[in-house]
Amino acid sequence: MAGALINVPKEIKRGETFEIKTLVRHPMETGYRRGPSGEAIARDIINRFACTYDGEEIFRAELFPAVAANPFIAFSTVATQSGELAFTWTDDAGHSQTETVKITVA
Amino acid sequence: MNPACRRRPSRRDLLAAAAALPAAGCLSAVAIRPARAAVPETMEAAIREFAGEAAIRDGRVKLEIPALVENGNSVTLSVAVESPMSAADHVKTIAVFNEKNPQPNVALFHLGPRSGRARVEIRIRLATSQKLVAVARMSDGSLWQDSADVIVTLAACLED
Fold first, then answer.
1. What is the reported pTM?
2. Beta-bridge partner residues of A46
3. What is the pLDDT of residue A32?
4. Which stretches in chain B have pLDDT values below 50?
5. How many CB pairs under 8 A join A and B?
6. Of B50, B71, B66, nearest to B121 (Cα)?
7. b vs e for B23-43, b when ≥16 Cβ sit within 10 Å of the residue's Cβ?
8. What is the pLDDT of residue B94?
9. Which fold would CATH assign to domain A2-103?
10. Contact B116/A62, CB-based, under 8 Å?
11. Band of pLDDT at residue A56, cut at 50, 70 and 90
């Protein structure tokens, strides 16, 4: 897992609802495909995604193999104060990647 | 992504496939398929597992997905729910199900009053033309749903 893209608006007003777009690089191997010599390719997907706002969870998703490779997820939250958004992706092997973004609320 | 799954069948492949057609190989491939693909009953079962015994009403939820999809490997889907998203009245969970992928579950989203707006967007895979269902659970426990039919011309590569 590497290469995460996170998009939040540059200027956010207090009390305003804004959209957060996230994308992380991952093959999201379904476990239903077979390799060139017919062997089954083991499942390897990101099964959990969570976002916290100053440490408090604001959004969580459970993902299944039907989610496309390089999972893109967009959701919303209310701007309460300037602070930090933390995004965590967790895969089948239990590895996780966390990215943080500072937001400024006017 | 497996490059082979993007490969267009060559003339040689087509001829070989045509030659193999009367043989049992093709028939057995067809026979194996239902065992691997989720049948509509399993989608119903998955929805029941999520919803329990409670009744699911139509409305309040809007599931948006293109009606015609060229490439099933990445399809943008959005679910929006009519809700004030206040502490007293908000969407708790949105679940998305499909009819004919190998598994009936697509994704489960947990929201709350801090979401502000009950709308999520995600890119998914579609193995074939099928129906998708989104179910939302509100903070009062009520359940609402919407469904959409999609036609897929190039399926997500599940077989090779």
1. 0.81
2. A91
3. 86
4. 1-5, 22-36, 160
5. 104
6. B66
7. eeeeeeeeeeeeeebbeeebb
8. 96
9. Immunoglobulin-like (2.60.40)
10. no
11. very high
User: The complex's ipTM?
Assistant: 0.92
Mean pLDDT of A34-38: 87
For residue B149, give the nearest of B42, B67, B73 by alpha carbon.
B67
| Confidence (pLDDT) at B29 | 42
Q: Which domains does chain B have, with CATH numbers?
A: 38-154 (2.60.40.2470)
By CB atoms closer than 10 A (0-12, 13-18, 19+), residue A74 is middle
Ordered by start, the domain boundaries in chain A are 2-103
B123/A33 CB distance under 8 A: no
Residue B114 DSSP class: G
Residues within 8 A of A (CB atoms), B 30-69 only: 36
Q: List chain B residues with CB under 8 Å of A92.
A: none
Mutation site, A14, A33, A103, interface B, largest B CB count within 10 A: A33
Q: Does A60 touch chain B (CB under 8 A)?
A: yes
CA-to-CA distance for A34 and A39, rounded, in angstroms?
5
Q: Tell me which residue in A56, A69, A71 faces B1 most closely, judged by beta carbons.
A: A69
